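Person: Please comment on this record:
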Amino acid sequence: MHISRAALYCMYALVHMAQLASKLKDGLVPAHEIAAKEGIPRGFLMRLMGQLAKNRIVHSIKGPNGGYRLARPAKDITLLEIIECVDGALIGELPVDNFDNEIGKKLRHVYQEVVENARKQLQRIKLADLAKAK
């Protein structure tokens, strides 16, 4: 199981937005502010925010006074949702071609169980939980 730097950048950006949401009248945060505050390359952040908008995690408002805001309350956005938005489905795959033998079957079962437990844990953790911790 691997979580990319892109997924981590999304988490940092979304935590930043969640922390500001209650302080801002319209909840809009400019991308350049997020990039500067969180140390994320601006161009890369813009591509990530596009993915988050496409997956309805954020809303994008264009224009000189535009920016991004959470599409839903932070308590309704899970870590799993963020990771899978960027990295794709979190699945367990072993680099073994032959699962016909007893060891291969056991390994596959154990690994699938580990991944399912990780998915459940990431589903339980909400963006709001991270926003409180930062």
